[in-house]
From TrEMBL:
Peptidase M14 domain boundaries: 1-198
Name of the protein in question: Cytosolic carboxypeptidase 1
Cofactors required: Zn(2+)
InterPro entries referenced in this protein's UniProt entry, alphabetically: Cytosolic_carboxypeptidase (IPR050821), Peptidase_M14 (IPR000834)
PROSITE patterns registered for this protein in UniProt: PEPTIDASE_M14
Annotated family: Belongs to the peptidase M14 family.
Gene Ontology MF annotations: carboxypeptidase activity
Length: 198
């Protein structure tokens, strides 16, 4: 229902596209949204500029019980489709790729942290199974494809909720952990990182 509301918010200046990223274990679709500004004209310069905008990748609701993540995603989507000068500037500067709900089966079935396979999908990023964890498998595949074609997102933000923390907070990625997980030949003593990401 909310996706049709977003479609109704589209103006000729807004590029809004809704694709199906994949089908879930339960047979539900997992949408992939693209939001940006339409090119100024059909000239090759404007089309090239349109296609080469940096990507921002957003996702939410990998844990079905974190309903506040959906509320924040709803606000993000409505803002990006809105007419405020900031939203217009963001659309003109970036292409937003958005998976608004990574665990639709868990949400539909009232689970708290698990998918229909009984697993926490947020713990499956390292080696997702295409049949058991299709939304993670295809999201990771899309991110890997974007990196392969030299279009890796400038920002990747996954919206969550928390059972005890209040207000808004962020966690970032550890450079050392990222290098260690990717088998790049570097010792931990070679890397210096700012612990502010925590």
């Amino acid at each position: 229902m909310h996706l049709s509301k977003l479609e109704a918010m589209r103006t000729p200046q807004i590029y809004f596209r809704q694709d199906v990223l994949c089908e879930t274990l339960g047979g539900n679709t997992c949408p992939l949204l693209t939001i940006t500004a339409m090119p100024e004209s059909k000239s090759s310069d404007h089309i090239c500029q349109f296609r080469n905008r940096p990507l921002i990748f957003l996702s939410a609701r990998v844990h079905p019980g974190e309903t506040n993540a959906s509320w924040v995603m709803k606000g993000t989507l409505e803002f990006l489709m809105g007419s405020s000068p900031l939203a217009v500037n963001l659309r003109e500067a970036y292409i937003f790729k958005i998976v608004p709900m990574l665990n639709p089966d868990g949400v539909i079935n009232g689970n708290h942290r698990c998918s229909l396979s009984g697993e926490d999908l947020n713990r499956q990023w390292q080696n997702p199974n295409p049949e058991l964890h299709p939304t993670i498998y295809h999201t990771k595949g899309l991110l890997q494809y974007l990196a392969y074609i030299q279009r890796a997102p400038l920002v990747f933000c996954d919206y969550h909720g928390h059972s005890r923390k209040k207000n808004v907070f962020m966690y970032g990625c550890s450079v050392k952990e990222t290098v260690w997980q990717s088998d790049i030949s570097a010792t931990s003593s070679d890397l210096h990182e700012d612990l502010g990401y925590r």
